[in-house]
Input
Amino acid sequence: MPDEAPSTIDRRKFLTVLGATGGGALALSGCSTDKVERLVPYLVQSEDQVPGVATWYASSCTECSTGCGVHVRTREGRAVKLEGNPEHPVNKGKLCSRGQAALQGLYNPGRIKGPMVRNPDGTFKLVTWDDAIGRLAAKVTGGKVAVISGAGAGTFSDLLAEWTTALGGRLVRWEPFGHEPFRAANKRVFGVDKLPAHDFAKARYIVSFGSDFLDTGLASIENQRGFAQSHGFAGGDVAKMVYAGPRMDLTGLNADEWLAIAPGTETALALAMASVVAGERGGAGALASVLAAHTPAAAAKETGIPAERIERIAREFAAAQPSLAVAGGIGAQHAGATELCAAVNILNYVAGNVGQTVDFAADLGSGDGYAALGELAAAIDGGQVGVLLVHDANPVYALPRTSRFADKLKKVPFKVSTSMFLDETSALCDLLLPHHHALERWDDSAPRAGVRGLMQPVMEPVFDTMAAGDVLLKVSQKAGGALARFNAPSYQAHLRAKWDALGAAQGEKDAEGFWHSALQRGGVFQAAAQAAPAAIALAADAGARYAAPAFEGQGDFVLAPYPHSLLYDGRGANKPWLLENADPVTKITWHSWVEISPETAASLDVRDGEILRIVSAHGSIEAPAYVYMGLHPGVVAVPLGLGHTAYGAFAEGRGVNALDLLGAPAGDFVSYLSTRVTLEKTGKYRKLASIAGVPRQLGRGIAEAMPLAAAKKGLTVKEAYLEEGHGEHELNTEREVVALKGWSEAQHQATKFGNYAGDHPQWGMSIDLSRCTGCQACVTACYAENNIPTVGEAEILRGRELTWMRIERYWEGGEKPGEPVSARFVPMLCQHCANAPCEPVCPVYAAYHTPDGLNGQVYNRCVGTRYCANNCPYKVRYFNWYKYNLMAWPSPLNLQLNPDVTVRARGVMEKCTFCIQRIRGAQNQARLEDRPVRDGEFTTACAQACPSDAIVFGDVNDPESRVVAAKRNARGYHVLEETNVRPAVTYLAKVLHSVEG
Amino acid sequence: MRTLAIVLGAVCAGGLVAVLVLGGSRSAAQTTKPVADSVRAAVITDTTSLSGPRQPIFFRHDIHAGQFKIPCQYCHYSVAVSSEPGIPSIQTCMGCHLAIAGSDSSAKTEIKKVRQAWSEKKPVEWVRVHYLARHAHFPHMRHIKVMGPNACATCHGDVSRMPQVFRVNNVNHMGFCISCHVERKVSRDCSVCHY
Output
């Protein structure tokens, strides 16, 4: 049975009792004496909750400093799903995996249950909020207060700043992978201390200098949307993207060309390109002479890329109008990062992109940088800090161990943390004042100019926590003195007053109306005032400099630690969705790995999974090897985010922390790309917990692609192959044609009977591979919508992953040395075949075809023979091997479950249902309103989440529907079409630029 | 939230009757004829012989729905819009029982329990009578939409004559659902209910 029955009675006993009483008035509760289901009504029915009907609230995401808008779906007073807010200008209805997984932060079993104080033996004991606030109030008046907070801007951040100033303390806003080099470069080159937004939609040629703008970069959802517009095929030309960096990240895998440059030499490349572009276009003024020294030949020596190639790319860049160069990633996190950002600024300037695709009006916020944190550390050493408050930051984990921040923290007499989790920093604190989760509190965010996002509590707090804003106010009221002016009755009142003032500043007379409209829409969004491009001018000393990178220590390899695609700087490591969802590049789950290039693997004789010891001057770590073609031979790369020593059961003791290899940071930012390392073989081995499957297509035509020229002519995939000179595959031989005819007649006959008679919708999907970036937001959405259990590392190692939707990644090229390597991504889900191989083999009719064109899977019929999965050519059926339903959601994580979807138990086959609960929900609603279901009224969770709108879902029988229009595309093909399974999912082939050497 | 006007009126022998006039858009469908003719619910002194599980409060559907003809949807208000029929909140009970204290000693005792629950802010924990397995989805609103507001009895039996609710039909017997679906020539597709 798909669910654990609440009573202890089994089927046989049930039938016996039923027989004895004649099947008459038998109350179920009468069968079982110990387990009686109770119905507990509300005392007072909430006005905005109807049982069984979802209530949506608008709020803002706080998982990173981008500040996307979210819509929270609640059922019976519990948040069950997060989706993007379509009105929000940054993310326009989309949300990345990390944002969606905020739900698992809300219900995380590792959350601190209430205010706590440290016992002398290092353990913590729960106290009352009155007691806890009294303790802090008694200390803050003593002065010498310091605060470390995250970089997110907004009313709370302002309050915290004022509060700290009133106490005469110092506030440091800091987060890892900050944007300090960008700000410094913008100041130096343009005299503007701002972070610009990038318009990828407008750009016709994009060069990324190590920037992972599609994945771990700031505003990745916005970037993906823009990138899909310019780089996705819509009939005309498509933009070209070149990625320059020592490691191909997800953005690199989406590029048309990869320049595998030596680590730290991006600046040389950018300046050489600027020099060529300035020569082509002129207008560089005084800069031209400076740039003249940076020739492609000089850059070729540094980067290892031939001068002709650099020159060609620079000319292409100059010719495309407008173009866009972006810096970022680890390239912008090494000692020469400011020079790189400055060089990229100059390149954009000489190509005329500033004001076109580089928009300084947006002014994305950022923190104070590492330098401020360093000063604070020095102040702690000097005994100038008596009370330290840490909010929304985990510096003990996120700083290299050599910075000895933990030791410094221990020197502070009284340390307070507002962290929701017992992380590495809060574990060292004396007083824990756990913060409300973003979905439990009033707050707002100000991520960029013109955008103010509002947050509202969507449910009662899960634990005995308190909003940090209320803590500040209550402490102020108790302590009095300099803090007496913080007299708002609650943080909610304080926020409301600020918003009333904001409304007044925007010329709103009706404060109440302004507030309610903002609450409904999730904030106020104004188009940022258009920056006058003239205002952005080159400063006198634009600083076109390049210094060859210097790396610390000895060793054959440069260590490139990079933020994990899903765990980011480590903040996602306590969320099982993010741990189980595979890294989009390597497809590895749950553990750390070290990437080495095939050349290194050959020279050291290392294969996937061999455990290597990586040794630097500062420490060593051990991790299994992953041989990665997208890596410069002189580099080893390790993802960050794991290796926690605290932070809850999911994170602790999992993987290694590559920060242990780095030296103590100096200057404005943590220099991640700074160390040389050696590799040592340990002789040990572990299997990689990877869900990759076969890495290459082997001629199966799974992820099809065609040249741009062919796509522009409107050729089909087959025609494009013929044009390229490939021979035709012999498919429909005479016998097959007869068989196909017979099959289609039989189908026609079958539609006359029973449930199948009459008109039904036929649900179908189209997935555009020229838009898909492989980011996996759809996968996380599927986990959230369909109650998919995370099975854990041990089960994944046995090949028992349970992911209804997965992104398959196939390598192309790279088989011979020097051959360019690229990747193709295919979102793979149940294809809902019309002639499905899974259906006829089911002995109990659990897998069957529904009248509306779905491959139904009836859990309560399924007896678990697994014949269907064996017969599925797409491997999209997943078996529930264990009681994952009891293991995957330790309380209170079970509260996130979607009540519309059955929680499957052991022994059941499960798979994508095209979100049948959404289909039935829309049909029920349409029936109530006496109308047909409208196209686009609902969509599947994956299509809803896709940041690049690659997925379209709808009724194929409705000629006006968007999915029919999408399926008509000449690029459409079916995966494994030759098997005649007639899938309902049409893929649109990827479109490739022809790449010259 | 719907607006409702409660008019306290006619006095029946020995007891107060609340004639409830419903307003608001959701109650538009409730103009159909009452379930049964006016019947006086019997006075019950011995509850041991009654069918069905014993509830924490001896709430008598036969008095509320039978004798006083309060429409089902007055209390189970979400049945026409949601898959869940909704168990009335204690506030709904108190809407009437602020004024109505009961006529005989047994009624008085039970109504006192409601008032106590209200004042102590402890909702009554009813014993569940109808339990549908969680792998089946039954959208109440669609059935009410098609079969009308008084269709409840089709599955739940004539609750208006039950002093204590008991199960008349086993809703977990799929045959019970299917026979109706066959009779009415509506879909028998598995995935309509099972997903």
Chain B touches chain A through 52 residues (CB under 8 Å). The mean pLDDT of chain B is 79.
